Amino acid sequence: MLKIVFTVIFCMQSMHVLSEEKLAPLLVSGSVIKQSASTTVPPDYIVSRQQIHQAGYSTAVDILRQIPGINVTQQGGQGGLTFVSMRGGDPNFTSVIIDGVRVNDPTNSRGGGFDFSGLDHQLIEKIEVFFGGYSPVFGSEALGGVISITTLGVSNKDGVHVVAELANQNGHAESFHVSKTVDETVDLSFAGTYRKGGDIIEGDSLERRQFIFKAQPKYTDQLDWSFSYFTSDGDATSFSEDSGGDQLAVIRTVEKRKFKQNNIAVSASYVVNKHWAVSLVATQADHHENIDNPGIASGVIMGTPPILSDSGFQRRDISLTNTVNLTDELNIGLGVEATREDGQFNSVIDFGFPVPASFNLQRGTKAAFGEISWQATNDLMMITGLRYDDADDNNETTARFVVNYQQPTAKRLFSFQYSEGFKLPSFFALGHPLIGNPNLKPEQSKNLSFDVKQRFYMETVSLTLSLFRNEFKGLVDFDPVLFTNVNRSSITAEGATFSVSLKPTEEVIINSHLTYTNYKTDTGVKLRRRPEWVSGASLNWRLQDSLSLNFQGEYVGSFYDSSIPTGLIKLDGYTDFDVVLKKVFGNDLSFSLISNNIFNNGYQETVGFSNAGREVRLVASLKF
Asked: Which of 119, 179, 180, 299 has the fewest C-beta atoms under 10 angstroms from its C-beta?
């Protein structure tokens, strides 16, 4: 069966001949063609640094909550695991990229799903979101979409930016960003943060440290390069997943987690001539996690024993891409990529006596890809791409086709995309000695999307309608009869997102969105944490030149979730509202007073886990 998704792809600029201008070696776009932004498929959604500051987000998770088409749940407070679903997909259907480095860890029990609680929002420059199967561009894991995060980098001038944050219940955070040019030749950037969550929810805690270093040449001719290093480590506690949280857990000992992430990316771009450019990118991601799970007492569902686990994963990747400009209207991208993955998982399960459960797996993937971008007319652009991946015994070919048509006089844009995705089985599903199955096959998806964007009244009003249908098949599931993982289930998610942006005056900006998603499974099983209705709205009002007010709200409809104490139940929908008052003094000093969940709504995102309630924070920002 075909899985179809309707994704928003807006590409409004025409193609240009390659010039010997500075390229962006680590540019992450929805295209393999490495050129200027005008010749790549832009993201479906972008959150900028300015928007992050205006909205006063408290975590990276809160940023994602405001993106149409993304549903986020977090078990309890900042120390709890996060689950991100893109247009109905499982959390492990999303490929997460930080500064060009893929960071999904297939050794974890979540199938490689990324936990966003390990990323600090103060170090984020922008977030780019791509909906649909993007394996023709990004390879495995881009089954349902891509979230690309760019951290703070070099700026146009030397300077230091420090931020201090105080929150109720002893929470606090400090961050810095330093930009420096050395000998008028190399731009350097250093950034770091330390965060300690407050004692708000029983059993929940988070302490996290992050550091980033980046370097790139200040001026370039034909050759450009960049280097980036990212490290994050922390300690978190929370009641175990499915335990019933602080409200229902029988065993009151909390789960303890230690995590560490290290990323390195090196890239170079060389403009051979005005028609040909070459890009080389090498990355390495290392992730380590230690979990002390106290076990879960039996309830409606049988409980789980205590487990002590220690896992490590490394991914090394190198890719070479050639971009050839045949004419002013026709561009071709051709490339190859090689990936090496090494994962180790060591655990001891306490059944009253210790039972070791460990594995050590390696996987190599070789890929070849190509893409053609054709500006047929000033108003019509088409992109088609194909990729072949050879991962040990699994071979996958994925394709996509994009059409964008713009009516300049009507200020209307139509976009259509067909795309495919695949995900190699996680190391945990393949290798766990008790439930692993080494014969698992890749999960697959087929996607279609159709979008219409319309601007009115001197572009002060913007409307976007996005229709989508996603079909995921061959999904990995646990078979209790065979007591192993198998490929069997399929999910179809189809729906629509409607977004409105208004700018009634120069001082006021209003944004709102509404998403409806209908879910179907071949087994009839109710999907967890998948609300049919999700909406959000924000108001940014510049009261004075130096004083602004930001108000935003979110509505999440009712949804199913499960815990061992309760089994599968339906949780009520909820609303959440935040407000930010920001005062700026000159160009360098600002204070923000932020209140999250201002009405102190006592909703649950997962069964039995209390939310943080009303939280008040004071943020001071100084540049010099």
From this structure: 180
Answer whether 325's CB lies under 8 Å from 17's CB: yes
437's tokens? 């199955």
Encode 192-228: b = buried (16+ Cβ within 10 Å), e = exposed: bbbbbbbebbbbbbbebbbbbebbbeeebeeebbbbb
Quick: pLDDT tens for 508-566.
Answer: 999 999 999 999 998 888 999 999 999 999 999 999 999 999 999 999 999 999 999 99
Q: Which helix (H) or strand (E) holds 280?
A: strand 276-293
CA 134/CA 508 separation, integer angstroms: 36
**How far apart (Å, rounded) are the C-alpha atoms in residues 260 and 286?**
8
Residue 453: which pLDDT band, with cuts at 50, 70 and 90? very high
Band of the pLDDT at 216, cuts 50, 70, 90?
A: very high
pLDDT in tens, 80-132: 999 999 999 999 999 999 999 999 999 999 999 999 988 999 999 999 999 99
Residue 39 has pLDDT above 70, yes or no: no
| pLDDT tens-digit map of 372-420 | 999 999 999 999 999 999 998 899 999 999 999 998 887 899 999 999 9
Quick one: what percent of the chain has pLDDT higher than 70?
94
User: If DSSP codes are grouped into helix, strand and coil, which group holds residue 122?
Assistant: helix
Which tokens hold the place of 203? Answer: 């059993």
- Sign of CA pseudo-dihedral 483, 106, 61, 63: negative
Q: Rounded CA gap, 216 and 232, in Å?
A: 22
What is the Cα–Cα distance from 79 to 483, expressed in whole angstroms?
31
- How many of the other CB atoms lie within 10 Å of CB of 154? 18
Q: Cα 317 to chain center, whole Å? A: 19
* CA dihedral angle for residue 464, residue 100, residue 534, residue 75, rounded to 10 degrees: -170
Helices (H) and strands (E) in the chain, counts: 5, 32
Q: Which two tokens stand for residue 68?
A: 């149409």
One-letter amino acid identity for 263? N
Within 8 A by CB and 6+ apart from 358, the residues are 344, 345, 346, 347, 433
Residue 426 DSSP symbol: P
pLDDT for residue 1 is more than 60: no
Query: By three-state DSSP, how is residue 291 classified?
Result: strand
What are the tokens at 360? 């050590």
Residue 356 exposure: Cα atoms within 13 Å on the Cβ side? 4
Beta strands in 152-254 (DSSP E): 159-167, 172-182, 186-196, 205-217, 223-238
Tokens 């008028």: give the residue.
184
Listed in order, strand segments (DSSP E) in 408-532 are 412-423, 443-456, 461-479, 484-505, 508-521
Per DSSP, the three-state class of 245 is: helix
Q: 3-state class of 55 per DSSP?
A: helix
Task: Give the C-alpha separation, 1 to 596, whole Å.
Answer: 44
Residue 572 is classified by DSSP as: P
Cα–Cα distance measured from residue 447 to residue 157, given in angstroms and rounded to the nearest whole number = 43
